[in-house]
Amino acid sequence: MGGGTFEELKGGGAAIALDEIEISILRSLAVQLLELIGPGEPEDADPLAALFAEGPSEPPSDPALARLFPDAYGSPDGTGDQGVDQAELTARSAEFRRFTETDLRTRKREDALAVVRSLDGLTPAGDGAAVLELTGELPLRWLGALNDLRLTIAARLDITEDDESAVLFRLPDDDPRKPMVMAYLWLGGLQETLIETL
C-alpha cells in the first residue's frame, strides 16, 4: 500500500497507510473543525423537540462557517437568482437556513467525529505507519469531513473556486501561510484518491 493515498479494499471500502505525523495533523484538523462547527444537542435532549427546533436565520459572520453553510438562494453580493429581488432572496435564504442548518451542522459534526474516532483507533507499527481501513458508512463520512476541511482552509486562505490562487501554491517556505497551503493540497489529494476508490 502506497503511503498518502487511499486504495480500494477488497469487499468494499478504502484503506490508507498513515504515519504518526499524518495521523496527528488529520486529528488536529478534525478537532478544530468540530470546535468551529460548535457543540451539538445534549445527549439527553428531547428528540421530538429537536425535530421542530429552528436553526439560525442569519448567515454566519465567520467566512469559514459561511463557506460551510452557504446561502441557498445567493448571497448579499447579488450573485443569486437572476430577476429576483435581493430582499426576496434574503428572505428565502433565511427561511431555508432556519429549517436546514441545524441538521447540516449535525451531519458535519458527525463526519468530523467519525474521522477523530477512526484515527484514535490507529496504532502505528514498528515502521511508524498504521493502516486505516474505512468500511460501511466511514468512507462517505471521511469524504464529507475532508471536503469541509478543505472548504475551511480555503476560506482562511481566501481561495475561491474561480480565483487565480496559483500564487498561493508557490509561496516561499518562510511564508506563514505555507503550512495551511500544504495541508489544503494534501487534503485535496486524500479527497481525490478516496473518491476514486468509491
Give short descriptive properties of this protein.
198 residues; mainly alpha; 3-stranded antiparallel β-sheet; globular
Gap between N and C termini: 17 Å
Number of helices: 6
Unreliable stretches (pLDDT < 50, length at least 5) are none
SSE run: EEHHHHEHH
What proportion strand?
Answer: 5-15%
The gyration radius over C-alpha positions equals 19 Å
| Main beta sheet strand tally, sense and closure | 3 strands, antiparallel
Mean pLDDT: 81
Which sequence of strands runs across the widest sheet?
1-2-3
Task: Tell the overall outline.
Answer: globular
Helicity, as a percent range: 40-55%
The helix/strand class is mainly alpha
Got a strand count? 3
Question: What's the topology here?
Answer:
Elements: E1 7-8, E2 14-19, H1 20-37, H2 47-52, H3 63-68, H4 86-120, E3 129-134, H5 138-157, H6 178-197
Antiparallel strand pairs: 1-2, 2-3
